[in-house]
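Justification of computing resources. Each target in the renewal requires a structure prediction run like the one illustrated here; the chain below, 477 residues long, is used simply to show the kind of job we budget for.
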Amino acid sequence: MAQKPSIPKGTRDFSPNEMVRRNYIFDTIKHVFQRYGYLPIETPAIENLDTLMGKYGDEGDKLIFKILNSGDYFGKIGFEGGNFIEGIELLKKKNPNEALTLNMLLNSQKLAGHLAEKALRYDLTVPFARYVVQHQSEITFPFKRYQIQPVWRADRPQKGRYREFYQCDADVIGSNSLINEVELVQMIDDVFTKLNIPVLIKINNRKILSGIAEIIGEADKIIDITVAIDKLDKIGADGVNKELQENGVSTEAIQKLQPLIEFKGTTLEKVNFLKQLLAGSSIGLKGIEEVEYIFKTVNSLKLNTAAVELDITLARGLNYYTGAIFEVKANVGTLTSSICGGGRYDDLTGIFGLPNMSGVGISFGADRIYDVLNELNLYPESVAASTKLLFVTFGEAEQSYCLPLLASIRKAGINSEIYPDSNAKMKKQMSYADDKKIPFVVIVGSDEMQSGLLTFKNMASGEQNKITIEEIIKLLS
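Resulting structure tokens:
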């Protein structure tokens, strides 16, 4: 019996038409990155587990796809039988009341180092920090890099959330200047203007959040507070308060947080509110100062289409952010998830032995952008077809005549092809052009071979003319 073909949940196949659209997204983002002076790098899909663990918070660490070591690891660490499957079954028998799963084994602190020493990368930022430290002698600082590669997360698949997806990152490291944050806002605006997606760029600062944790008397709970506040859109204020309480934040501190969670107003009103709230916190006031500079400078530069606002509840759950943080949402369509985000990290490279190397970056979620463009059909017509011209022939002689013409068309930079089966009926060849959305066709028979004038047909309008190959090149170039 044949095996039923399938793919893991949270992953997707992309057919040619879909890949043409995805490449349009990647190319648009890449061109903007390059315009701002960013250079490409790539890092391996697999990183050492200790490179990734402890960088994303407890919730993020749970979503890392760990890679099982090969070999007799159960035998080496003292499990009976030595075989992995047998080892699991033996453990189940010893602990019949536990729902023992492979994932629980891999997340066990005692077993993790034995069972999994490597993992699929969770994001591109931590591997980038590792890369910077490892290649520091080759790098000119400030170093501006971009990276477009897939990442993996063991998340629950749902709309806009996948286990395998592409990130398009741009980071600059080795500079404390807030000009970098301003340029990232401009880059976000440029990308989504080109993609024709109206967006809202939300900005906050982790120093502001640290100041808030300080003035409510819970400075040591900053991670718990940011992780909870980051879920405000999903679970509401009551859900945030409940999670804070469960994580040991005092009732009094939670009450002090409520004005922040509930406050509405313009960016200026929010800044004034924060200045009063954080008057006794030097780190909080520093965060406000940074936010004010970013907004003032961005406003003076006048963005193309993006709207920008200060969101004092924006937290972003990743542990390594220390300054400005960004989140971008589409102002159209039904997808409510973030389609771009990022922020500043002051010492991520310090974990790998290179301290005091501040960086800031953004990451475009290509798969979510793809879903928005698909839902709203925002692709330019030119994206639909990768081939611009098809040669249609009536036999071997005509096909041989067309091959040099096809070569000259391609040399002129025009995507073109010839129907390979010379004995195929014209209807079949024209249907091929229709199915592939090829906009133009050249039809060549004995008359065309004798006169040198080719029948050039516009597939959309049905109009056709007799013209030379030189005229065709001029029209399509």
